[in-house]
Each structure stands twice: as C-alpha cells, then as structure tokens.
Amino acid sequence: MVKKILLVVGLGVGLLLVSSASGREYIKISDPNFRPYPIAIADIKDVNGTAADLARQGTETLRFDLGIAGVFKVLDPRSFIADSKQEGLSGASINFSDWINVGAEGLIKVGIYRSGKQIAMEGHLFDVASGKELLHKKYKGNAAGLRKMAHRFADAVVRHFTGSPSVFFTKIVFAKRTRRESKEICIMDFDGRNERCVVKNGAINLLPAWSAGDGVYYSSYLHGGPHLYLYDLKKKKSRVISKSPGLNIGASASPDGKAVALTLSRDDNSEIYVLNADGSRPRRLTRAWAIDSSPSWSPDARRISFVSERSGNPQVYMMKSDGSGAKRLTFQGNYNQTPDWSPRGDFILFNARDERLVYDIFKINWTTGEIVRLTQDQGNNEHPTFAPNGELVVFTSTRTGESKLYIMSADGTNQRQISRGKGEYTTPEWGPWPAK
Questions:
Q1: pLDDT (0 to 100) of residue 295
Q2: Which domains does the chain show, CATH number per domain?
Q3: Which of 147, 249, 292, 339 is deepest in the core (most CB within 10 A)?
C-alpha cells in the first residue's frame, strides 16, 4: 500500500505527516522536510498542595524526555504568558490564545494528586489552534514511581505523534573508571538516572555489549586475559564465554542472540570470529595480515562492519556474515574506528581522528559512501552507538574535561550530557527495547 504524504504548515513550521494503513497521520522524523513540532509543557500542577517537590521532578522529566525525543521543539517556559494559577487541566479553563502567542502548536497540562504515600497523575495533550484534547491519561502509584509515570505519559505523547514507541524505558551500559587500578561495568537509564555498577571485581573490565537476552558481555582481566564474560542480569552472576589465548574483546551479539562476534588473537593476529552465544563452535571470519577488530552486526544479520588495518591504518570495512566479500567503506582520514550499525540498516556510526589528533563522530551511508560529521570542536568524542529506534546516539566526550556520557539526535543536533556521577565514563552501548 502506498503511504499518503500530507504537508501541514502551521505558524511557519512545516510538519511532515505520514498516513498509516489505519488512516492516522504520523510525523516522520527521518524525512528531509521534517521540522520539530513546537510544544509547550506547562509546570505540573500540584492540585491539592501537598506534592510540590514531585511536581517539579515530574516537570523536569517530561521536558527532558520530550526535548530529547527528536520530534518536538520544547518551548522555553520563561516565554509563557498564561496565568498558571487561573488555568486548570481542562480545555475549558485554558486561554489557548496565550499559548498561540508564544508559538505553541501543542500543549501539555499535567496534574498531580497526593494522598499519603500514594499519588495520582493526570496528563492532557491539546492541539492549541483548535483547543481540541488529543490525549488524556491517568496513572496511580506510590511517590517513588513518579518518574515512571512521567515517562509513560511522555511515551504516550511520542506514540500519538509518531506511531512508534519512545526510548524512555531503555538502558545504557558502559565501563566506568572510579579507581586508577580498576574499571567497573555499569548500567543507567537512558536519561542518566538510576546508575548502578553490576560488575565490581577490582579488575579492569571493559567494552560491555548487550546480549539479546538479559545479559551483558564484557571483557575482563580478572584471571589474566582479557577473557570474555557474560553477566546475567537476573541471576546477578558472570560466566566465562571465551578464554582463548590472547585477546577476547569487542563482543557484538547477533540480532537473534544466537551468536556473538568478537576479536580473538588466538592465531597470533587479531581476527574477527563468530561464536555461538554460549562460546562454543568458534568460526574465523577474517584472514588478513593486519589487525581486524570491532565487529558490529547489521540489523538483518547479513553483514558485519569492522575495523581493519589492512590498508595501512585503521579503516571501516564491511563483509558478509560468513566473512566473504570484505569491502572498504571509509577512505578519508587515517584513523577510523568503533563502527556501529543503525537499527534501520542505513547508516554506520564511527569515530575518526582528524589532523589535529582530535576524535570526532561521523556516520556513513554504506550504500552511497556519503559521510556526515556529527561532532566538532568540543573535546574528544568517541564510541558512538545508536538507540534501538535509530534516532538517537550515545557517546563519550571530554568537552568538560573528564570523559562523560552524552546523547544526541542521529543528525548530531540536541547534544546533552546524561552522566551525573564522578569518574571516567567510557565505551557506552545503548540497550535494546525492554521486554514486554
């Protein structure tokens, strides 16, 4: 079925809407004509005057979520002219002309009701021009669950406009140096909250990667090595996957979770291998004289991108998943590394060192060879990986001094720091969609 394209223009902002098979019209972010949808998020209303702290926390969460989603232009609350004390949550209580005058096309109004340890949250989404209510949701729970409620309402707003889920319930894994002699494997929510370290053994642990199930691959020098381990998030324990002589690093789980690609140096040279998910039946894919490393699967599992020095310096290559048909992708620069394939299958992220010996992030369209630069003039930016929707990227940056975690839109815009703790954050990987 051919999709119907409708261009809607309001207040000078073009929105590309795509009709689905059901007739609903959705914003298509990836289209070149896309413009962010201007939306105002009013301060959450503490309805019975007992939850001011929660109202502030919920407002912050909503503005962060929808601000990073890539769909919206979240308007600066300092520009708002509406009387927050007079306006309520219903359309009848809202002076929509005040919101039109600050450039809003959408308006979010949320109220929180507190009763002891329990809270209720009620969210409304309005079309400002018509005053029509587009969405109305209610949630209940304890006060500790407020952020989750805010994420759920923000997710409902994203789904309303795009027809697709948000990344607000996904997680990011990374290595973190908190002491000179060790690195830990840690996990945080997509927005940097709820950071926790799951592998803390006093050794150097590095290069974490999500398995397709409830686990994280990582390499560790705990017993020599580095050996490849899998940490089971449910059982909260690690087991060895590969301990071949030499290197066992750079794991990348296949999309179906049945295999893992990694770099082994068991043959006196660093080569790409594929193992079963439990570490059995190793198959060697590369046989070049040079170092081959950093494998990343395409979303259809038919190809693997990787780094090779067979041309004389590190460049990004691609091969079929059986190791045949190796093809060089990058020809600019002399130090290109850490490729990561988009879940959409169109782009491959990588970081490159320029003539000033500074690292920045790029993406390449592997079918056309077109390269787009995503970061510049803000410290060293490295180790990019895509979110599961392909619309956001997590990476490390030293722009404030020590290496921290940042996220940005897949076009390089809307960059913001998410890591909040002390220590050096390295090699992040964005996790999969949460299990239903």
A1: 98
A2: 37-162 (3.40.50.10070), 171-430 (2.120.10.30)
A3: 339
